[in-house]
Amino acid sequence: MEPRRRLSLRRRLGRPIFVLTHHPEDARPAEGVTFLDCDVAEAVRIGLQAADGENRGHVVRQAVGPDRALHLSSSDVLGLVASDHVETTASAVTSRTSLRRRHAKRLMIVGGRAHPALASAIAAQLGIELTPATLKTFAGGETYCRYEESVRGADVFVVQPTCANPETGVGLNDALMELLLLVEAARGASAHRVVAVTPWFGYSRQDRKSAPREPLSARLAARLLETAGADRILAMDLHVGQIQGFSNRPVDHMTALLMLTRHFAERDLPNPVVVAPDVGRAKLNQKVAALLGSDLAILTKDRPAHQEAEVTNVIGDVEGKTAIIIDDIIDTAGTLRAAAKALRANGAIAVHAAATHAVLSGDAPKNLADGFEEVVVTDTIPLRAGMPPSVRVLPTAELLADCIRRIFTDDSVSQAFAGENQLF
Predict the structure, then answer these.
(1) What is the CB neighbour count within 10 angstroms for residue 207?
(2) Which tens digit of pLDDT belongs to each residue from 185-211?
(3) 375, 351 in Cβ contact below 8 A?
(4) Could you read off the pLDDT of 377-391 as tens digits, one per residue?
(5) Catalytic amino acids?
């Protein structure tokens, strides 16, 4: 008969003392004790809640052999189990009305089709393999997913930046829908906790109304994840900080700022000046300037239409200096190209650019082809084909794996960034 309840006591050094099994066919639970692995040099102590008052709190202790047993009171039980001599490693009865169990947590990583290489790299950093899952798109355009092994009781981290990936045939909206379905499937399969790992949070730039009758698309995307069943959201360098408040679920925020800053510090560029691409990025770039020990300049710009920008002024001294433009996103790179032109017109001898998210849509390859000594991005989004050789990609798998490990072990995520992960 399969035992209904198994308890193990271990020494402080970890060696098993004994295993106690409570069989369901026993009429008197307190007496249903089987010793499977005894150390005769140790006194074995266990408290097992009885089915009635007569046997409540009985303790069986084996000191020398299996036929020498002693019954103790329930007060003795609590003192012995809580003593320094033994500790519980599975479960123990701590009161008459509850059974306490130490949950053996499991961490599982599943990747969607938006960025399978990043998901595999994260799993490798954690020393595990990706959880197998079937992902496909039906002829009618509907997305299908299924976990190929049980996720019951596990902490499931779904790695899916909401971006397009031409190699796997998914668009931005397909990636978002696939993420929602993976979260919903894990929740329906009784996962203990489901975390949406979205290094690039799609629709993040639609965070406010810039004209009447516009939606707050970033808020909708956050609420869709919440409705699907995500317990947490893990994102990197959100476009604006208020997106963290669009969901009622916790949002753990990461930043690639320190990674990008370290890259330029190692380059030891001559006479650097950090340039904020607009007033909204001044605080972030001021932090980079402080870390690099350089000056700060700020660009002002106008947006006559969507995905169009015009640089109107350069605030600060850039003459004879190496300009470093730091932003969160490079999309069509039209603004970046205009910024480089304005900086060179004001005397900058070289222009470098960096951003966390390489959306790189439209004419981005053409706009980045000249005018820049180097363009540094991270791999939160798969790099589009046809980029000029000046584009360099920094890996984020190690940073993401560290944050996932911290969430899994209930540790602090902000400590991974020395508290500097909210630079908005």
Answers:
(1) 18
(2) 999 999 999 999 999 999 999 999 989
(3) no
(4) 999 999 999 999 999
(5) 301
